[in-house]
Records
---
Amino acid sequence: ADAPCRAAAGARQAQLTKPAGSLGRLEEIAIFMAGWQRRARPRVDRGRAVIFAGNHGVTRYGVSAFPPEVTAQMVANFARGGAAINALAGAAGLDLRVVPIALDQPTADFTVEPAMNEAECLIALNIGAEAVEPGLDLLLLGEMGIGNTTAAAALCQRSFGGNATDWVGAGTGVGGHGLEVKREVVELAIACHAHAPATPFETLRRVGGREIVAIAGAMLAARLHHVPVVLDGFICGAALAPLAAAMPSITDHILAGHLSAEAAHGRLLERLCLSPLLDLDMRLGEGSGGAVAAAVIRSALAAHDQMATFVDAGVSAG
Amino acid sequence: ADAPCRAAAGARQAQLTKPAGSLGRLEEIAIFMAGWQRRARPRVDRGRAVIFAGNHGVTRYGVSAFPPEVTAQMVANFARGGAAINALAGAAGLDLRVVPIALDQPTADFTVEPAMNEAECLIALNIGAEAVEPGLDLLLLGEMGIGNTTAAAALCQRSFGGNATDWVGAGTGVGGHGLEVKREVVELAIACHAHAPATPFETLRRVGGREIVAIAGAMLAARLHHVPVVLDGFICGAALAPLAAAMPSITDHILAGHLSAEAAHGRLLERLCLSPLLDLDMRLGEGSGGAVAAAVIRSALAAHDQMATFVDAGVSAG
């Protein structure tokens, strides 16, 4: 982030008509956004939500409460404006882009082979990167992909260690035997790829998914273009896990929109050194939690931009 | 709240294109709002923020980091549009009303006598009630009053017991010796009024303040008119404490906007049986935290109103 712009935003916060620090995280958000937008008064005129979608070979094991056809059905629902993210992105003033990636080609079963070959993984990274250009004020990343909390758990375990119990949760609502199967699938995946190189690319390619890889690509492009990012939940965080394990500062341009109800999300955010803005017990994905956070970010910037200073307002400082 | 409208809103949530319960507190908010607005699809077309302001005799003891003149200076700042609440109410689409109450007449020193006589207290209650009319979709209550965290601590202690250490915090930023003085002022107030009747009216009158009593009046009027309320922080919660101690269900039409950084706020919300929507380390008052919460409420209602059902969207239910 740009240090002079951060400093200018911090100096402005100190002069606004309120006790120093009394807007708490709203002040942090304003300073964060100033640094990445490289202006002392950040704005969200051009905010974009991008929802990547992909399908997963491991759905054959029954790891989700929903059938894999729902990925394409929900993409159609996004296109018609009927999903939560349509309403929530609208409420937060974000443009919505939906990017389905080869939905008719689920990833391979990563308990026995890599989810993607190298070309497929590179294509997904590029699709992600192409969703971002310089001049965006805020980028919300979200996803849709039946089965993708299983891939996310495998990414976390391969990146940060632990076992499947640490990383596997209910996702859209699988329980009982389904949850046991999900854990077993993750352990099989970890074992299958145990001797592969522990690079971010290989981890994403082997146990990720197309929409997850695209999120990683978009996040990297956002960094290149100085675009601040707000993340949705567990799967989005897992997309960063292989990169953050290799280079922790890769999350510097990222705000965690919320803590989801998915059990492992808190543990993951700690590993990513991110503190969530919201904790609303949400677990939908598709960018929904991040979109609510974007409304809070907009509030933070409104206060930063519009408030009077002590001198301007003739208010006695404490 | 209206049970059929709550039930209709709950039934609608169950049909929307998402796993059941996956929008977490956004679903609860929609159902809550439906019950109090008495319609299955609640809206915030007429949302109002009301900020009451008053002055406090106990500022003579140095209980605040700011001089008492700041109350009137900040009211002028509100009128000119330069305060945090102007920006945050605007971002949340709320109309803002500022109601200063007899700023040139600070309350009496409640360590030695009641803060208000009966007529003064009734006037403040009525001023609060008059700020609310039927047909409002949402009412945000906030306050401004240098010294009012001291009154708030006394209200909490007189309502819920404990000692001054439990209820006194830094407020706008008092520390060290000032904090000791503040605790002592609260203990003196409790002792002074120990033998007075423990009714809500007497507690509000003796250790409250005009803006605090007005908040209680507005909250009661909102209940009468079925207007859902979102509260700001510690002082607003303290305004309800005497009433909630006498009748816990009085908070049923209230959402706690946020958990503030004021140390005792979490303890107070537990006693009020309210779970805060946000935790952003804010401690400004003037309705600021509640206004950010109002933006979240708006997001919740947008999802509830605009989303397609599984049947409409042709999406397979789980």
---
Amino acid sequence: MISQKMKTLVSNNSTIRAMFEEGKKLSKIYGEENVFDYSIGNPNVEPPENIKSIINEILNEEVPNLVHGYMNNSGYEDVRAEISSFVNKKHSLNLSKDNIIMTCGAAGGLNITLKTLLNPDDEVITFAPFFGEYKNYVENFDGKLIIVPADTSTFEPNLDVLREKITSKTKAIIINTPNNPTGVIYSEQAIKDLSSLLNEKQKELNTSIYLISDEPYREIVYDDATVPCILKYYSNSFIGYSYSKSLSLPGERIGYVVINKDMEDFNDVISSLNVANRILGFVNAPSLFQRVVAKCLDAEVDVNIYKKNRDLLYNHLVELGFTCHKPQGAFYLFPKAPIEDDKKFCEDAKKFNLLLVPGSAFGCPGYVRISYCISYEKIENSLPAFDKLAKLYSLRHCKINN
Amino acid sequence: MISQKMKTLVSNNSTIRAMFEEGKKLSKIYGEENVFDYSIGNPNVEPPENIKSIINEILNEEVPNLVHGYMNNSGYEDVRAEISSFVNKKHSLNLSKDNIIMTCGAAGGLNITLKTLLNPDDEVITFAPFFGEYKNYVENFDGKLIIVPADTSTFEPNLDVLREKITSKTKAIIINTPNNPTGVIYSEQAIKDLSSLLNEKQKELNTSIYLISDEPYREIVYDDATVPCILKYYSNSFIGYSYSKSLSLPGERIGYVVINKDMEDFNDVISSLNVANRILGFVNAPSLFQRVVAKCLDAEVDVNIYKKNRDLLYNHLVELGFTCHKPQGAFYLFPKAPIEDDKKFCEDAKKFNLLLVPGSAFGCPGYVRISYCISYEKIENSLPAFDKLAKLYSLRHCKINN
């Protein structure tokens, strides 16, 4: 008796759940310490230590009805002002509180943005590999997700194919940088070229095409890499941000949307994001944590922990003969499976208690995602399992043969 | 460039915002203490005092990555188990954690429930006067809200008209008890009769009709009134609950949905609510506050504060000659306007710095909503303004004439 749309989604979901259940089953049989779950993007690094004292400070200094009460659907004005100043300083911009809407994480932000933009049958284009939820978010509002296949040589956006896919139905482009699942940061040149192409197409088609950059991993970067800020390159642009990863607070559902100050119909867009926040049932981003993040704008989790994980696992996999792009951000590796059938490869990995996610789930078959936001020790302990997996496929330099 | 649907909503929203802005303007001219804002349902009673120590207890005793981390989309299992035990004790039921899904307030709960149930053009019926957001929630999923006009003699659901309105397209009924805006608690007899009618219609039409009870005011009741629990009377029933009012935490977005254990297709419904929580962008109810509410299940705000407000204002209005049903719950009065045009009456009230909401906003023209969740002192100070308003309409017993 559930809706047709949900029936399909529920049956797809069962596959994911089956995987999760199987992980639990393996843990029961072999012991949790012998199962290597690389399937989930749940940050293992602790939130900044001072989060606790910041929460206490707020509870002690502020009036309970204000801390836990309703505010404007966009969020507390002082919080939005502080975040805009912070973003201004970081990127030499000139935003005000009006450019910031507090949201229930990036997922909430993307949903209110798509609700604002999409008429039924509008098209939204994204680049494989992509976070699978984009399809659901777009279809929530009766839009259609169009996928540009991966350029597996660089994992940068394939603009030649994008050019072909843009039509008068194209309402938005979603990018995700640093990228889940590849860890690639789109280069400044790629962002510039993308922006030129979109500007050209807006003129040619006489439509508005919005660029939405989903950036929950913006702060998780290595080797002094920088993430270009799209607001500087393209007017009709949004950023969806989340503190889930940068502060390790994914359960608290706290983030924001930045709206480019040069956006067309700016006021309508702001009003609509507000109304969407309200009527989709978010009402507002959780109030205490709005105040918390405003007090730790400079705080970050210890990214070096993820970097050490990346280096250990990346080096080992490459040594084993896996082909893998070295990620500059996020906490994922996306190596090529040694066979075409990535699902089969994941099944084989499971024989050694390694839980990986097939690239097909991200629109990029033939690859697998390895989520390394687990403890260093666990990664160390998993290396022999990767050795065995490599041996199964007779990869070169296979350590186990030494 | 925003979507057609949102264009309409944004222009409607401007009316509400205009009202809000006008309130601020009046405050600037006459001073905040001389403006009596009875328009907003933002609880003024403080959250239970121990909320602060409970938060501290959680932060001190539990692992940060668990307190602030991801969990199942339904919420923490232990929290759901504790809530189900609590509900069982209160209503002599036999629920388990599987009957509870933690949500971002009641608004989030209603949205995931409607997403689960509605195919395009499905109809959802509600009884005037009703909370205006229901229309938006239903239309989020391309459903149509059908309104049963108010029975203004009792403000109980008009079942004769409901009978006529139910068709094969009817997917759900939404009730709200204690009611916003009337403060009426639907009687046990009304719930029984409603349930019989729905059971009869399910058989007759060979369809499933779901009953959704929106109960954010369940704990805000006076004079030992009790709110019947629909789970006992009708199998295909949901309760949408929120801690926004019972613990004065509206900004924290914390509540839950209860799913009747005898519901048809129970497992599909649960899976769908889970997926809907995820893909609408809630992902999960805010994590820290899930743990907070589990530790204060017995706590309640001091309802006597609201009761004192109700008595003061209700008695005064009746004495002035207003016709008003004495509310048994929530924190609203819903008197009849002395003229048909409730909007005109609210405009006149504004002349005395009284901000009221026209009943038209709740599908019940000719009435006005007075939200008395403000301080007792403020209500006392506003009484002369009500006197003048009554005088303007030459109501009997008008104190100002004494």
